[in-house]
Amino acid sequence: FSALSLFREINKHQETAIALNNIALININLNNIDKSISFLNEAIQINIDYDNMFHLCMNYNNLGIAYKTIHDYENALQFFTTAASIADKAGFEMFTAQSNHNLGSVYLLDNKHELALKYFEKSLSMCREIGIVEGEVFNLVNIGIVYSRTNDYISAKKYFLSALDLAQNDLRTTLTIYEELFRLNEESGKFNEAVVYYKLFESVKDSL
């Protein structure tokens, strides 16, 4: 917070906005959501004043994450949509892809599976187009989860295995995929395959 105080004192407005955003992220991780929202709103006002669209996208996405954390889906959707709109108009493809993924994640939490799928697929297409492999993996996993939750186990497995091929050394994502494949096979009555994925899940879990 000392850096924030210094930037405010010497009227470094852009640096102040960046510091506010970073402190807000820390507070989100600490579950101090009210504080994070306050810091982000202050950062947003600075970036509006200085017409900094790049950092505005970042602020609105983080504001959406803050509201999603407390299950305020209405506000989360509003701010992710704002971020997506700004990013799209400014040509910030990475932020557009991220914002669409975030929108999908809210709809998934709210059990609105068709809308979740729509935004995950849109984000997946963009991630593939601009070469963001990590984003591609996250979208593949979430599309798999949508299909799994709607009992389309064949499609779910296809997306989980595609994500697994790309996850490589990302052990935490691999762990999630193995867990989902275990659940999918258990729910669809394929108990032998379920056991295989459960053992893989436990193996990766032990290595973390």
Secondary-structure topology with pairs:
Elements: H1 2-9, H2 13-29, H3 33-49, H4 53-69, H5 73-90, H6 93-109, H7 113-130, H8 133-149, H9 153-167, H10 171-187, H11 191-207
Helix pairs in contact: 1-2, 2-3, 2-4, 3-4, 4-5, 4-6, 5-6, 6-7, 6-8, 7-8, 8-9, 8-10, 9-10, 10-11
Task: Characterize the structure shown.
Helix content is 86%, strand content 0%. The protein is an all-alpha fold. Helix 1 runs antiparallel to helix 2 and helix 8 (133-149) packs parallel to helix 10 (171-187). It is elongated, with a radius of gyration of 19 Å. The model has no long low-confidence stretch (mean pLDDT 94).
Percentage of residues in DSSP E strands: under 5%
Number of helices: 11
Distance between the termini: 32 Å
Q: What average pLDDT do the residues reach? A: 94
Quaternary state of this entry equals single chain
Helix content: over 70%
Order of helices and strands: HHHHHHHHHHH
Class from helix and strand fractions: mainly alpha
Rg from alpha-carbon coordinates: 19 Å
The major pleated sheet works out as: none
Summarize it.
This protein has about 210 residues and is mainly alpha-helical.
Name some characteristics of this structure.
208 residues; mainly alpha; 0% strand; elongated
